[in-house]
Amino acid sequence: MPKAQSIADEVRRRIVELKWRQGERIPDEAELAVEFDAARATVNKALQVLADEGLLDRKRRAGTRVAINPVSKATFSIPIVREQVEEAGMAYSHRVVAQRLSPVPAQIATRLGLPEGELLVHLRAVHYADGKPYQLEERWLNPRAAPGLQQADLRDLNANEWLVRNAPYLRAEFFFSAENADRRDARLLQTRQGQALLILHRTTWNDLGPITTVRVAFQPGHRFGAGEGRDHAG
Amino acid sequence: MPKAQSIADEVRRRIVELKWRQGERIPDEAELAVEFDAARATVNKALQVLADEGLLDRKRRAGTRVAINPVSKATFSIPIVREQVEEAGMAYSHRVVAQRLSPVPAQIATRLGLPEGELLVHLRAVHYADGKPYQLEERWLNPRAAPGLQQADLRDLNANEWLVRNAPYLRAEFFFSAENADRRDARLLQTRQGQALLILHRTTWNDLGPITTVRVAFQPGHRFGAGEGRDHAG
After folding, report:
1. Which residues form the signal peptide (chains A, B) (predicted)?
2. Last residue within a domain, chosen from A43, A66, A89
3. How many domains is chain B partitioned into structurally?
4. Which residue of A has its CA nearest to B195?
5. How far is A185 from A229, CA to CA, in rounded Å?
6. Cα–Cα 20 to 30 A to B151, which of A62, A84, A164, B127?
7. Which residues span the domain enclosing B155?
8. pLDDT value of position B231
9. Contacts of A61 (CB under 8 A, 6+ apart)
């Protein structure tokens, strides 16, 4: 939709240059359609792009206003660790430190919405780049939401890849936090105890229930980020 | 588009239930239009939703296939700190520790694409929730991309809010990392030196150049996250 995109770009420019200021009502679709020599549906599409970005507030009767305190939305990709390492030109390997059926502890059970003590697959693995620890994962997997899991050999295909291919999710939650490396983190990541580590917790669900929850501890100094690119949205 | 949404839901269900497996070609638009008793444009819209989610690969001639190694995309909002604190039912306050025109150091200059030593506004501020440190920000602001900045009193309206109202951005980059609190971090966040801190670096640009770059250090234990919600996409 190049026409809608160019209208969105122009409206965004007017907001950025403060020609249309926060809280102000902008001209309605019909007026903009005349100004831009475009169909109303095209103007509508352009304004929706900006509403999705958080720059405009659209109300059916009250019309469209420049958003007050627009919320910045950022999108990032959660990469497949093997691809990430190989794209950086390094050799990927991984080692499963532990894989066993274990009763799920209370904190994890709460996160998954399962009863405490239910038997899940507990997995601890280290991913390496050129033989150096790249990230450490501690994962709980629910065989009831991932049929075939108990027959899978996660030493060959890693859990990340197995899940991507065999258990697509419908819903996911994640959060970042920072933790001081404990004794085990330090040993497996080959760093010192107390080192600040970036941690990503992520949980996924499908129709059958929770699939997996994972705590990923990145190597010290790791940066996890992306561009937001309002100009690329829509 | 409730019809397109329901078609997208059904196609997503077939992928999640492995009826259509990774790498497989799915029926073409015309066949799906017959099956779902819908217009081809509606089917096209539904498939585009799933392509945007990363579940389908669409190629003009080769048709549509279930994506191999679908990339998970996560979206989160970067909240306005005052609103975040107040929504949690706490009283917000903030204190500007330092605000002065300073020559920009090399590392920050590189990130901004500006010459080292250029004069920018350097700001250090602490945000409090119920009187306890909530986050610490160290910020560089470029007056050339934010006209009016030098006249603004950032002790009253905080920089975050001033920027949101007066300098909308076109492009942004961010990354998360973890750092051990240094002496100043520890003093301003009222924690111990060495405590692991979650750090968010964020830089924004408009047509005039870089607007600002900020290092936000969150209080110890802070979690930053969101739901991904493939089922809500599109």
Report:
1. none
2. A66
3. 2
4. A180
5. 35
6. B127
7. 81-218
8. 39
9. none
Which of B80, B161, B176 is most worth mutating to test chain A (most A CB atoms within 10 A of its CB)? B176
* Statement to judge: residues B45 and B134 lie in one domain: no
A223/chain B closest Cα distance in angstroms: 5
Residue ranges, chain B, pLDDT below 70: 1, 69-72, 227-234
Token pair listed for A156: 């060959």
Lowest mean pLDDT among A15-24, A30-39, B212-221: A15-24
Residues of B in contact with A168 (CB under 8 A): 15-16, 18, 55, 70
| Burial class of residue A19, CB neighbours in 10 A (0-12, 13-18, 19+) | exposed
- What pLDDT digit, counting tens, does each position of A116-170 carry? 999 999 999 999 999 999 999 999 999 999 888 877 777 777 888 788 778 888 8
Check CB contact under 8 Å for B74 and A174: yes
ipTM over 0.85: no
Please judge whether B166 and A18 are an interchain contact, meaning their C-beta atoms are less than 8 angstroms apart.
yes
Whether B98 maps to a domain, the answer reads yes
Concatenated DSSP letters of B2-60 = HHHHHHHHHHHHHHHTTSS-TTPBPPPHHHHHHHTT--HHHHHHHHHHHHHHTSEEEET
Is the Cα torsion angle B82, B85, B86, B90 positive or negative in sign?
A: negative
The predicted pLDDT at position B227 comes to 65
Residues of B in Cβ contact (< 8 Å) with A22: 165
Q: Which of B16, B173, B176 sits opposite A168 (nearest CB)?
A: B16
Chain segment B203-226, per-residue pLDDT in tens? 999 888 999 999 999 999 999 887
The reply to whether residue A198 touches residue B195, judged by beta carbons under 8 angstroms, is no
CB within 8 Å: A169 and B16? yes
